[in-house]
Predict the 3D structure of the following.
Amino acid sequence: MARDLTQLEILGELEPVAAQNLDRHLSIARDWHPHDYVPWDEGRNFAAMGGADWDPEQSRLSELAKAAMVTNLLTEDNLPSYHREIAENLSMDGAWGTWVGRWTAEENRHGIAMRDYLVVTRGVDPVALEQARMIHMTNGAQSPDDWGGFLLNVAYVTFQELATRVSHRNTGKVCDDPIADRMLQRIAADENLHMIFYRNLCGAALDLVPDQQIEAITRIVTNFVMPGYGMPDFRRNGVLMAKHGIYDLRQHLEEVVQPVLKIWNVFGREDFGPRGERARDELAEFLEKLDRDATRFEEQRDRLLAREAARAARQPAEVR
């Protein structure tokens, strides 16, 4: 029986793949500047500078858009924690180190643009936003203690980057502001390129150590949590976003998990040993359960939205 490769051996074997995908990324990634996506002419001083502090009536965003924007921004804000995790589980040498630095710089740009937009347009309470940032960054990344190692991390960020892309894109649509939509489209395009880098590395790892990598993939998919897990109001905001179709179980299954697994040909591969077969079987069973859970959630959501619509339709008559 062939032994498992160590993390150091895996990193060494896959460095040429990392270098190739780094070159690919640098050749197609488009530079952009956060200041080009912010309506600066809407800005004015807050009370500390002789102006007026934030008031809820100043915001043009719906409660849904506020929740989604804050959730997405705090996710980007926690970048130092994600950088630390990636740096520790990839490498800071050669192509790996160059990628980690580039990825960090691009992700940081997302947070700059989103915060500037929200502060300038007074979209959310800047004091509450800063308090939430302090809490979330102090807590750091909230992942299980035994999720270390290259294989687990590269599998997680593959799904996470695609999930973040979906969330950003759908958030832009509910902001009812073409400026916010344009900004979040730009950010989502970055997230897609990041996903492709990690997806290609994870696919190469599947070819190199199929049993080890499918075990990692199965573990990540069956225990997946969004990177914003642990931030203030994460559960409340997550429920609101799922209720209104920004990111829900069906999207997670059909727009994130299934497309990536299809690219890797997980259910058509014939190079798994007994361990890999067991992991793949576990993954298949979980996906069937996720589909059932998504259907149950959709049914409950439809009933809830129908009740809310009926209540709203009766309200004018009740007021009269």
